Amino acid sequence: MTALDPANLFKDTASPFGGRKVVDVDTHLTEPHDLWTSRAPASLKDRVPQVKMIDGKRSWVIDGDVVIGEGANPSSTVKRDGTKWPGLEFMSKQIEDCHPASYSTRERVELMDALGVAAQIVYPNILGFGGQNAARVDAELRAACVRIFNDAMAEMQEESGQRIFPMAMLPWWDAKESAAEIERCHGMGLRGININSDPQTHRGLDGEMLPSLASEKWDPMWDAATSLNMPVNFHIGASDQMMDWFGNQAWPDIDYDLRMGLGGAMLFVNNGRVMANLIYSGLLDRYEKLTFVSVESGLGWIPFTLEALDMEYMEVGIRAGKLKRMPSEYYATNFLSCFWFERRDLSQTIKRLGAETVMFETDFPHPICLYPIDDVDTAMGGLTEDEKVKVLSGNAERVYNLPL
Fold first, then answer.
1. What is the domain partition of the chain in residue ranges?
2. Residues 366, 76 contacting (CB under 8 angstroms)
3. What is the mean pLDDT of residues 157-165?
4. What pLDDT digit, counting tens, does each position of 283-313 carry?
5. In whole angstroms, what is the distance from residue 211 CA to residue 245 CA?
6. Helix, strand, or coil (residue 373)
7. How far apart (Å, rounded) are the C-alpha atoms in residues 154 and 134?
8. CA distance 376 to 358
9. 6-29+99-399 has which CATH code?
10. DSSP state string for 106-118
11. What pLDDT is recorded for position 1?
């Protein structure tokens, strides 16, 4: 492992969190190339996700030749020496080029120690932030890929000494299978689930289009999540509809180097569509104890969105009596959100949302991650000590039931 230079970790300060305990609620795993092949049964070893040479370059494939990661990019912007690649340079790199903390449990824990981070929540890359790439193969293979991934994540959590907490991936195409997997993962000690936000864009195993998450068809999944107190995380880009880095967000004459930046910024705001649908659907009147986390989407758009939902509901929806409460009231009882780069009026935004609904993240090791880490303590200067503790660790410990 390359030794980490503390100067590469912190920007402008040697104590970015004011000495407080920190839980980083959004990081990612650069999946080792043998994550699935080393755990797959012999009958599926050639079909599970793996890296092969396709058209002269490495690519992640599933089912032998279905490309799900052209170029096998590790989605890590942190070099072996602990510094970051500028711009889009990371896209030409391989797993051997990036820092081992991107893919190794031991090195990740060592990095956390260097950063002053007590625990991390971890999300996937290769099968999609919401597991959507699994839908490209048959029922047996997609279910096996999810189970193998979750088994590997339970191993990672244990190897980390209960400091790294990956969110479980679901067989989101089937409500009963999802409920069973929630129960299985809870039994392995995993602390939350990671969900595809738009199943209605896919066909189920019966060939029919799946319903949206508001449908009662998904009740077995919601029953399992609420009974086991497993928070439901919807990460940006957690569906085919949401994942659009270089596609339809930017105008065709926007420079290529700027398209990813524009697409990424729109991904943050697009999580508002998911939140708004969850609220307007009435789901939270049926499942009052469901907890959702909007991951890697930031904070600033939320107050406006909630106010807009209230205004629209008063104008066109309240006479129908569809909801038990005003739309904005569901945020405080059923949602949490995360920040990393926001600095303008950060404390005021947190106060508007309620400090008990906000958590801290870095998005390590993705290209927009908060690395090096700046003075987060000063950025939250308008908060009380109790509010800072809630944001940096207390809310995460409560929501994810962390044994810290």
1. 6-29+99-399
2. yes
3. 98
4. 999 999 999 999 999 999 999 999 999 999 9
5. 25
6. strand
7. 20
8. 14
9. 3.20.20.140
10. HHHHHHHHHHT-S
11. 43
